[in-house]
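This part of the workshop introduces the protein records we will be handling. A record pairs a protein's sequence with a compact description of its fold. Comparing a sequence with its tokens is the quickest way to learn the format. The record below serves as our worked example for the rest of this section:
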Amino acid sequence: AALPAGVLALLLGTLLWAPWRALHGAPLAELSGDQDFQLFLHKNLEFTRKIKGDVAALQRVVCDTFQLCKEEELLLVRQDLGIAQTPLEQCHSRAFQAEACFSQIRAGLRAYHGSLATVLELLPEHAGLVETLQLDAANLSSNIQQQMEDLGLATVTYPAEGQDPLPAFSSRFHHQVGGFFILANFQRFLETAYRALRHLARL
């Protein structure tokens, strides 16, 4: 249903300028009363939590299968691999802007959808879980895109991380460590995305 212009203006104003911290008593009754937006937030909070659980399950598989369990033991190898954390600074800066944050989440989900192919090659016997994770990442990205369109938020295009070919690992061990860090980075990415959605749900 279309929102009254005044409610839409307040909603967009709140989304565009809400700092990461509390909004110092701003009149947010209209925003919290927007049932469609709240439904989107709560549904996708649950969805993000489910994806985090699946990433954690794959991290346990990598730990059990390759004995790669602790990041601090692998940091030197990581430097050789060039696997960077997908940025989400727009989701936790004090100048938090919903359209920029949502756009970064979508770009990151696309990047991880691609880089999970590295994990799929490593764990062919767990292909079902990896492919479910890829599908869920694509669906969460699609949900956010749809919500941005529904709210009239502009889509901010960030340079698509992970659009390059997957790294060519020089050894089987490097491939295993690469998969480990892709999952570790994805888990951190999801934690930040989850906090951003939860922050909006509390407004």
